[in-house]
Amino acid sequence: MRKRRYQSGSEESSHGIDLAPMLDFVVNLLIFFIITAVFVKEAGLIVNRPTSFNTPENPNTKSIQVQILETGEIWVDNREVDARAVRANVERLSAVSPEAGVLIMADEAAPTGVLVEVVDQVHLGGIYNITFSTSQ
Amino acid sequence: MQSRRHSQEGEDTGIDLAPMLDFTINLLIFFIITTSFIKETGITVFKPEALTAENRASGNLLIAIRSNGEIWMDRRRIDLRDVRTQMERLHIERPDDTVVIIADRDSNAGAVAKVMDEVRLAGITEISIAADPAGG
User: A74 forms bridges with which residues in the sheet?
Assistant: First the structure.
């Protein structure tokens, strides 16, 4: 009995260590992490860039070309199409050549909004292999 | 008498803090795990909308491009030539980072392409263009 009192050294011998300081510390950590937490989720579209200008792509797979002009006009298959009609056109062309990816040729000054719209439409058409290049 | 005996049991230590500590540590672990240290851009950008925009949990390096071509990263405006060095530094710190380019819907596609190239030169291949999943 005596030895035991010596070990614990206080009147708390029946209750183990005092958890209150640890709790203070943990709550402080918790507050820090709550304050610094940012729940930003950026949704995005994945597009590729051409890896090299010289590398010829696999000659067997011809890609479907979509052009975006400086003014935001969209040309598919040598015709000007509406942004909402890109999907139908791409679906038609991909039915002819199912393995083909889509190459978006945008003007340097073309608005990004149109670009994203075209990428979205091509995604809706079921093609996720999109390469994006720009031209002056 | 009954109630008095009940209160006598924990008379010398007050309430038991152990369950509260358990609970707090659980909260703490939750916040530590969900903290992803996203590099925010510091500006508001009008993002384009896309139906097929997908949430990627690991997209945590954000680069904003304003409609006038300014590039913002980590709450600072940076030059296009600095994008690569910044990205290389961050890529070394956490190699599994992915990049989301938040381009204004009126920004030039050429600016987006240049930033994508710089990021790719820094060795990060997973790049997506931000879009709001709204719009239907």
Answer: A68, A81
Closest CA to A123 of A86, A72, A70: A86
> Does any CB of chain B come closer than 8 Å to the CB of residue A31?
no
Chain B: closest CA distance from residue A125 (Å): 11
Q: Tens-digit pLDDT profile for chain A (136 aa)?
A: 444 444 444 454 556 778 888 888 888 988 888 887 776 677 778 887 776 554 455 555 678 888 899 888 999 888 899 988 889 988 988 888 888 888 888 888 888 889 888 988 898 888 888 888 887 6
Residue A9 makes CB contacts below 8 A (sequence gap 6+) with none
Place of tokens 């790719």: B120
Domain A64-135 matching CATH 3.90.440.10: the answer reads no
What is the C-alpha to C-alpha distance for residues B63 and B77, in angstroms, rounded to an integer? 10
B131·A39 Cβ contact <8 A: no
Helices A112-124 and B109-121 pack at an angle, to 10 degrees, of 80
Are A110 and A69 in contact by the 8 Å Cβ rule? The answer is yes
What fold does the segment set B59-129 form as a domain? Nucleotidyltransferase; domain 5 (3.30.420)
Q: So where are chain A's domains?
A: 2-36, 64-135
- Which pair of tokens denotes residue A91? 């679906």
